[in-house]
Amino acid sequence: MRIEIIDPDRCVGCEICMLACVRRQGFAGLAKSKIAVHSSGGMEKGFTVLVCRACSDPPCAAVCPTNALEVRKDGGVNLISEKCIGCKNCVEACTVNSIFWDNEANKPNICIYCGFCAMNCPHHVLYFNKEWGKENV
Ligand code: SF4
Ligand code: SF4
Q1: Which residues contact 35 (CB under 8 A, 6 or more apart)?
Q2: pTM for the complete prediction?
Q3: How remote is the CA of residue 119 from the centroid of ligand 1, in Å?
Q4: Which of 4, 22, 34, 109 to mutate to test the pocket of ligand 1 (most atoms within 8 A of CB)?
């Protein structure tokens, strides 16, 4: 499974994907979002969507000193929260800048590949690929 950004040009920066992610976890606000939308310089220059790409050989897991990020067979990682010591090595290592920090928990916001962001994007920027990586499971 993974979230694919199929047409970034269609993003209007509404942040509904972020809200959907946070609501899915039972929170309000945006601080616990596992997906981010950055302005590239206003409506004219568009927006960049950052989300875990479910790497098959994830560098975040490789640098974690406590093995708190467990590599999934179908791509990406699971956070084993109790093992995380909050060092932020994973944030630094992510090659697509898609590990965000939960200041309250002092732990990374790791995508759980639920697909809510993609399902709620009104502009069809995102696609929830349920089949991706299944051959490895
Ligand atoms: S797949 Fe789920 S956890 Fe991951 S960014 Fe989208 S809504 Fe959040
Ligand atoms: S912040 Fe937590 S999950 Fe990330 S590398 Fe450090 S111990 Fe591992």
Answers
A1: 3, 17, 18, 21, 49, 50, 51, 98, 111, 117
A2: 0.92
A3: 10
A4: 34
96-133 pLDDT, tens digit each: 999 999 999 999 999 999 999 999 999 999 999 998 88
Per DSSP, 72 falls in state P
Provide the token pair at 70: 């467990």
Alpha-carbon distance of 24 to 55, in angstroms, equals 23
Q: Which atom of ligand 1 is nearest to the CA of 33?
A: 8
Ligand 2 pocket check: which of 79, 84, 102, 110 to mutate, most ligand atoms within 8 Å of Cβ? 84
* Segment 1-42, tens digit of pLDDT: 899 999 999 999 999 999 999 999 999 999 999 999 999 876
Phi, psi (deg, nearest 5) at residue 108: -75, 150
What's the CA gap between 107 and 80, in Å, rounded?
Answer: 10
- Quote the tokens at residue 122: 């009104």
